[in-house]
Give the backbone structure.
Amino acid sequence: MIVIYLFQKVMEAFKLAEKIKSVLRERFTKEEAIKQESQRKEQEEINKRLQIQLQIEEDKKRIESENRKAEDERKKLEEEEKLRKLKEEQERLIAGGGVGVAAAGTAVGPAAGIAAGIGSVNSISDSISEVTPSPGPSLDIGQTGIDQISNHLGPPPAYSHVTPPESHIIPPGGTSGQYLPGATKVLPPVIPNRDLKPVNTGSEIPSVDRSNKPSVDHFTSTGIESTNKFGLKDVIVSTDLVEKFILLAAKNTRANTETCAILAGKLSKNQFTITHLIVPKQTGTPDSCSTTNEEEVFDYQDNHDLITLGWIHTHPSQTAFMSSVDLHTHCSYQLMMPEAIAIVCAPKFDETGIFGLLPGYGLNFIANCKQSGFHPHPKDPPIYDECSHVKLISGIKVTVADMRS
């Protein structure tokens, strides 16, 4: 009986354990679903903000373009209006007879210089004697006097281009064809011929001898000598480098722990060659790896005159890709050395990727990202890609410096 009782209790305990396990599994599934949904919404929100920002920039550029067009159109209309008014003024002056009359007391005389206005018969006689070689009689002012003076003088020469006030212009049907001493012939406004405007033929542009421009020969860029789309020096990687690293990381990989190492080498014949695989002291988890005692790595590189050309690490249970933490880690490498590469090994899936942040957008985006830990990044446009400046060549000697032991 006791055995049966104990057996029943054990069975009840098993049932209870199964029930608890089912509840925990359901709760974990729900929490995981909530977490994934939260990450998805966060990613959508980030993408939405990026789209809004892009739309704002496009609208701003469109408005600026429309404003420029409107301003150009306004200036064009103003120029047309000015030309129209000038043409109307010219036509009006021609229609008015083209004759100006000097009012009493107004000095608009010819080049010979009638300084005083017409105020008396004596002043008129003096003016006549200055304008014509033949003396004229002294006449009384009045319509008859005006006619006599005009008949005596005849049409005067156009001495002046001064335009009198409108009150001095003889209207049509008035005393057209009659002139007074001191009258000024009105000429239409002179509009310059724009065909005479000098044209810049480009001969004034100084010539520049670009043969004296120094060639690009600094530490990281190759200028026109580059063979890849980003203008970077080639990085030579031995074909057996990844195999050596996977072997020394095998113990950690079996324990589902990441392993990382530094890629170092030298610059020769305008290209970098990875010659050393330096494995520092480190601690790892299934999805992260942290180095310690970095001073040993610095001393080793200094003693062997090595340049840091990137890093390599494993994904023991995942595929070969760059996580958000990987991107932020690699950013510091690539900011110091544009040619720096990141090699990701995924032994479980037999995958290896050689990646780099895309110069320009990708590098700037990660450099300005203030988030830490694992967090989502937009995938469009891409932030990183496989390196186009890496060449895999066999026969390159690679020295392994394992500092873990």
Observations:
- Residues 97-190, 194-206, 210-224 have pLDDT under 50 and may be disordered.
